[in-house]
Design a protein that fits this description.
- This protein is 35% helix and 26% strand.
- A five-stranded mixed sheet has the order 1-3-2-4-5, covered by helices on one side.
Length: 105
C-alpha cells in the first residue's frame, strides 16, 4: 500500500530516503487522480523494498504542494537523493510511471 505523506512527514519520508521515491499528489474530488490510483497501488507492491511509493493529498497539505509547485493534479514527482529527478502530470498509462521509476533504480 502506498504511504501517506503530509506536510509533517514529507522531509523524513521522501527527502531523506535512501531509495527512489515517487509521490502522487492527488485530491479526493479529482477524476484523473482516481484513474491512476490503482496504478500507484500496484507499483507500491511491485517496488516494495526497491522504492517508496507515496501519496500526498493536496487539499490537506498546502505547504508541500506549494513548495514543489504542484498546480495540476494528478502530478507524480520522482525523487532521488532528496531531489526531484522527474515528473509526470496527468493520467497516463502505467508504463509511463514504470519507465520513469526504473530509470532511477
Amino acid at each position: 500500500m502506498a504511504i501517506e505523506v503530509n506536510d509533517g512527514n514529507f522531509e523524513e519520508t521522501v527527502i531523506k530516503s535512501d531509495k527512489p521515491v515517487i509521490v502522487d499528489f492527488w485530491a479526493e474530488w479529482c477524476g484523473p487522480c482516481r484513474t491512476i490510483a490503482p496504478i500507484i497501488e500496484d507499483m507500491s507492491k511491485e517496488y516494495a523494498g526497491k522504492a517508496i511509493v507515496a501519496k500526498c493529498d493536496v487539499d490537506i497539505n498546502p505547504l508541500v504542494t506549494s513548495k514543489y509547485g504542484v498546480r495540476n493534479i494528478p502530478t507524480v514527482l520522482f525523487f532521488k537523493d532528496g531531489k526531484i529527478a522527474d515528473k509526470q502530470i496527468g493520467a497516463v498509462p502505467k508504463n509511463n510511471f514504470v519507465n520513469k521509476l526504473n530509470a532511477l533504480l
